[in-house]
Design brief:
The structure holds 2 protein chains of 2 kinds.
Chain A (H helix, E strand, L loop, with lengths): L3 E12 L2 E12 L3 E5 L6 H9 L6 E6 L2 E2 L10 E4 L11 H11 L4 H14 L15 H13 L5 E5 L7 H18 L2 E6 L2 H7 L2 E6 L2 E6 L1 H6 L4 H6 L4 E10 L4 E5 L2 E5 L11 E6 L5 E3 L9 E11 L4 E7 L2 E7 L2 H4 L5 E5 L6 E2 L7
Parallel strand pairs in A: 3-8, 3-9, 6-7, 7-8
Antiparallel strand pairs in A: 1-2, 1-4, 4-5, 9-10, 11-12, 11-14, 12-13, 14-20, 15-19, 16-17, 16-19, 17-18
Helix pairs in contact in A: 2-3, 2-4
Chain B lengths: L1 H5 L1 H27 L3 H9 L1 H34 L5 H9 L7 H11 L4 H6 L9 H26 L2 H9 L4 H30 L2 H6 L6 H12 L2 H26 L21 H30 E3 L3 E4 L2 H5 L4 H31 L5 H9 L6 H11 L1 E2 L2 E2 L4 H26 L2 H9 L4 H30 L15 H10 L3 H26 L9
Helix pairs in contact in B: 2-18, 3-13, 4-8, 4-10, 4-14, 6-8, 6-14, 8-10, 9-10, 10-13, 12-13, 13-18, 14-23, 16-17, 16-19, 16-21, 19-21, 20-21, 21-23, 22-23
Classes of the chains: A alpha+beta, B mainly alpha.
Chain lengths: 361, 536
């Protein structure tokens, strides 16, 4: 691929008899921020550590630039990692921690000093030089760990859930900073997390992983609005999954019969033939909720509100529709308060999305 | 295997560690068991004298371990869960016996409570006979309860105060809270401490040799076999009999009680203030702890007094002749110091290396190394001593009468201490530190030198000090190995006491203690707060 900086092709890895990575292939353009997102045990951390060189792949290639690095030992890869627990050396000061990698490279003393100061300045941690890691706060430790990696000007920056040890508020702040920093430095970055909102907020590209495989790769918008499978739809955000049979289809539209209701779906890239069983996905905020019978009867469902919570910007409803429970967000609570009882749900044809990667039996 | 050729230094280190463990731990054990013939086993096991010694050993384990555990628990409870006064002082006194020769308690009580005892005869004019099972019971209780107390102190400390608060919150107070929450949570720790003390009592040689009189136990009987009859085979049988229950208790303590621990390890150290203790708990508990502390202090008072009076029990006039007579033993004192420093350092280095290999590297025999390195903790000193005297005083490896045999026995008797310290420390050092260094460009040697070694300095010094103290104060290990060429102070003290030269023995013991505490102080100054001793 043009401009791909990090390429992983057909990578396999198992521990004993457990296959942890199965045929992973992906490409990260230079300077891009790529997130491996998935539930715990999906292999995302193993993949990251294989890139760092802590694990050796069983098969497949890892290429950085034009160099295949399969057999390059960890300490010569310059794929620098920020660890989940930061792994700051407790017997060194902050300054010594940050300068450690440059010192190993035998960089001239003045250069080490200059680069260390500059990086610390960027991260706003000047003044902590002589402290021990144990004497600074969690947020500061986080920045020191980041500085220790950035000062190396790595080919690839690897981040292993670096925000998971911080409290919620600090996490939001550092998240924004991290994105800015990455864009300023233009470093190809791999980020591992199980937190979908972090992934959506930070990434240029997200690779959603499950059970050792990459399920879908795409921009945050694509992943959110155009998930290919139920797993992706469900893991990122909240999704109402509607199953049904295609009864009519043409070049970009189809009609799906679900539970006795006909649902029109527009903007479908290649609709399946009539008779195929399909899954549709609808985001809670894409469903319109009405108290009175809407004038347009198509794509309309009748339901009973079972539960609701007020979340400030919207009200979230759990609504029983036939056998199904649907989650619907209503942003108009300011005008009409919290609804109860019977309501009508309208599913706009353009906001119903076909899960094209879902194989139907 | 391929990896080993790529890193020859690592391969050589592994070979040295495995070889040394095989030769200096496994081989002597096997030799002791194999030395006597079946007939000799049968004879000894039929002799009523030895059966009695066995029963006596069992009786002492039951008595002394029970009281030592009880004393230890009360002390530990007082220190951790109540508001008794003078806690720091009590704790300071509590750990004194850990830095002193174990036989010292018996020796001092002989002087305090014996026929010519300062307290029994001098103060009250009673001629008592402390020699025998009751004297031994008292001495072993005082000598070993601190170990139990320290073990249980850490157990009680690690019971999260929030659990006790929860109990109180649900309506349990005072004794009910203690009975329903604190005690059940501490039970595995108490059991562990009791078993640990049982091993110490079973293996104890110093106290019974000094104070048990005609009441013989297995350890002393084994020694008398050799000393009186030159019957090494008989001694080997007796110490084998001693080893079996010791190993069983040890295995039980390690694998059964260890798994049942409720110790909650959380990152946060809960520092909730405990409620003030009720007066009717506080003062009796304090009185008890104070009384026991006085019993410990008496040991040292007796020793120093004994060193400066003319004739204990009949002539209380002060004199310096015992102290100046120590000059004739300068050689032994220096030998004790040098042997123990060398043994302590070697033992610490060896055990840290073994711990490092076991936790960080994968190699054949890794599990075997792990097992053999902790095995010496279950070996009675007397057993190891006989093992060395059988194995290394004849060809092919004849070390009879050399410094080497004494030092080696000290080194390998102590490796389990350093090894466990090392394992604990290495587990605390997150493996991601090594990975981070590697990730930043450090090669394997560099990681070892710049990351692992500096972080292991504290534990190394702890291991050194513990091995050093145990070496300089041991009697049981060296008693079979000492000759006039290589004998150390503890051996001389034993002979002086059994010949009735209390003054000289007291003076020598005082000097031994001074040396031990001087080295300890120097190490403290050198390493500072990082020195973490006796975290059993």
């Amino acid at each position: 691929m043009e401009g791909a900086h990090l390429t992983i092709s057909n990578l396999w890895k198992s521990f004993g008899t457990t296959e942890v990575l199965k045929d992973i292939s992906l490409q990260v353009p230079k300077g891009a921020f790529m997130t491996f997102l998935g539930p715990s045990g999906c292999g995302k951390t193993t993949l990251l550590r294989t890139i760092a060189g802590f694990y050796k792949a069983d098969a497949g290639d890892i290429t950085i630039g034009n160099r295949i690095i399969n057999d390059v030992p960890s300490h010569q890869r310059n794929a620098i990692m920020v660890f989940q627990d930061y792994a700051l050396f407790p017997h060194m000061t902050v300054a010594e921690n940050i300068a450690y990698g440059l010192r190993i490279r035998n960089a001239p003393r003045s250069e080490i000093e200059q680069r260390r100061r500059r990086t610390m300045d960027y991260l706003g941690i000047l003044g902590l030089e002589d402290r021990n890691p144990a004497q600074i706060s969690g947020g500061q430790q986080q920045r020191v760990a980041l500085a220790r990696a950035l000062v190396m000007e790595p080919e690839v920056l690897l981040l292993d859930e670096p925000l998971s040890n911080l409290d919620a508020k600090l996490r939001m702040n550092i998240r924004a900073e991290l994105r800015q920093l990455q864009q300023r430095f233009g470093i190809t970055t791999i980020y591992v997390t199980h937190d979908q909102s972090e992934a959506l907020a930070l990434s240029d590209q997200i690779a959603v992983m499950s059970a050792g495989r990459v399920i879908q790769i795409g921009s945050p918008l694509e992943i959110y609005y155009r998930p290919e499978t139920e797993f992706v739809a469900d893991f990122i955000g909240t999704a109402n999954i509607i199953r049904g049979e295609v009864i009519r289809a043409d070049s970009s539209e189809m009609t799906v019969l679900s539970d006795g209701t006909e649902l029109l779906v527009r903007d479908v890239t290649s609709p399946p033939q009539p008779g195929a069983m399909v899954s549709l996905c609808s985001r809670p905020e894409a469903v319109e909720i009405e108290v009175d019978i809407p004038s347009e009867k198509s794509n309309c469902l009748r339901g009973e509100i079972e539960n609701s919570i007020f979340e400030g910007s919207h009200v979230r409803y759990w609504i029983r529709v036939g056998e199904r429970a649907m989650v619907v967000d209503d942003t108009r609570s300011g005008e009409r308060g919290i609804l109860r009882g019977s309501v009508y749900l309208f599913l706009p044809p353009k906001k119903l999305h076909l899960l094209s990667g879902e194989r139907q039996e | 295997m391929k990896r080993l050729f790529r890193e020859p230094l690592l391969a050589i280190t592994i070979i040295i560690i495995v070889g040394a463990l095989g030769l200096f731990v496994l081989y002597p054990i096997v030799r002791v068991f194999a030395f006597p013939s079946i007939k000799e086993y049968a004879v000894v096991l039929r002799t009523s004298r030895y059966l009695r010694a066995g029963l006596n050993s069992l009786l002492m384990v039951l008595l002394s371990a029970s009281t030592a555990t009880l004393f230890g628990f009360l002390f530990a409870y007082g220190l951790t869960k109540t508001t008794i006064p003078l806690k720091r002082l009590l704790k300071g006194i509590l750990i004194l016996p850990l830095f002193s020769p174990p036989f010292m308690v018996a020796f001092s009580y002989l002087m305090m409570f014996g026929r010519n005892g300062l307290i029994t005869y001098g103060l009250f004019g009673v001629r008592t006979n402390i020699l025998g099972w009751h004297g031994l019971w008292l001495s072993e209780t005082i000598a070993f309860f601190p170990v139990a107390a320290l073990t249980m102190e850490s157990v009680l400390q690690s019971i999260a105060p929030s659990l006790e608060y929860a109990g109180r919150n649900l309506g349990a107070t005072g004794f009910k809270l203690f009975r329903t929450v604190t005690l059940p949570l501490a039970t595995p720790g108490v059991a562990g401490a009791a078993l640990l003390v049982s091993i110490l009592v079973l293996a104890d040689f110093g106290n019974p040799i000094m104070i048990s009189g005609d009441f013989s136990v297995l350890a002393t009987e084994a020694w008398l076999r050799v000393e009186g009859w030159g019957d090494v085979a008989g001694a080997a049988v007796l110490s084998s009999v001693l080893l079996v229950p010791s190993v069983i208790i040890f295995a039980f303590q390690r694998f059964w009680v260890g798994r049942r621990s409720y110790v909650t390890i959380t990152g946060k150290i809960a520092t909730m203030q405990s409620e003030p203790t009720k007066w009717f708990v506080r003062w009796p508990l304090f009185a008890f702890c104070a009384a026991v502390s006085i019993m410990i202090l008496l040991v040292y008072v007796a020793l120093v007094l004994g060193a400066v009076v003319n004739g204990w029990g009949f002539d209380w006039s002060p004199t310096l002749r015992w102290i100046s007579s120590v000059a004739t033993n300068t050689g032994q004192l220096i030998r004790s110091l040098i042997f123990s420093v060398v043994a302590g350092a070697t033992s610490a280095l060896f055990s840290m290396t073994a711990a490092y290999l076991v936790t960080r590297k994968r190699f054949v025999l890794r599990r075997a190394v792990d097992f053999i390195a902790i095995l010496p903790a279950a070996l009675p000193g007397i057993f190891l001593g006989i093992g060395y005297s059988i194995s290394f005083t004849r060809r092919p490896l004849d070390l009879y009468g050399t410094a080497a045999i004494i030092i080696l026995s000290m080194v390998f008797w102590n490796i389990s201490m350093g090894y466990q310290t090392g394992i604990g420390a290495l587990k605390q050092i997150s493996p991601s530190l090594g990975e981070a260094a590697s990730n930043l460009g450090a090669g394997s040697m560099r990681i070892f030198r710049e990351i692992e070694i500096p972080l292991l300095q504290g534990p190394f010094f702890s291991a050194f000090i513990v091995s050093f103290i145990r070496s300089i104060t041991t009697l049981s290990v060296i008693v079979f190995l000492a000759t006039s060429n290589n004998s150390v102070v503890t051996f001389t003290i034993m002979n002086l006491v059994s010949d009735g030269f209390y003054g000289k023995a007291a003076a020598l013991t005082t000097f031994l203690l001074l040396i031990a505490f001087a080295v300890l102080g120097a190490a403290k100054l050198l390493v500072g707060k990082k020195l973490d001793l006796f975290k059993v």
